[in-house]
Design goal:
By secondary structure, the chain is mostly helical. It has six helices and no strands. It starts with a helix and ends with a helix.
Length: about 120
């Protein structure tokens, strides 16, 4: 199996695990940094190079994303939430005047907490 992958060119030599852990963004890989003044840089060429580095969506990644999004751990709570709203509506207990301000307060609180964590 390994020989077949190497022969097909699918296998690309990669950095070892310790190097990936210590330098995940390849900051210390020894590549020279372009110290040219901004007037001499060809920005269009740099943008093309960076766009080429961006990974494109392929079928394998899409399958992996779909598999995670339709898992029971994600669908069951949404089903419970929907059935709860249906039950409240059928029993005439759904009063959005209490629910929506509470939801808004939770969103505001969450945004402040996330800003504190990020700072």
């Amino acid at each position: 199996m390994v020989k077949a992958k190497v022969a097909s060119g699918e296998y690309v030599e990669d950095r070892d695990l310790l190097d990936k852990i210590e330098d995940p963004h390849e900051l210390y890989d020894g590549k020279e940094i372009n110290d040219a003044p901004p007037e001499e840089l060809n920005l269009k060429e740099i943008v093309k190079e960076e766009k080429a580095k961006v990974k494109v969506l392929d079928v394998k990644n899409v399958k992996h994303g779909i598999k995670g999004s339709v898992s029971l751990f994600r669908l069951v709570p949404y089903l419970f939430l929907i059935l709860g709203f249906i039950a409240l509506k059928n029993n005439a207990l759904l009063d959005l005047w209490y629910y929506l301000p509470s939801l808004f307060a939770g969103i505001i609180t969450g945004s402040f907490v996330s800003k504190e964590v990020m700072a």
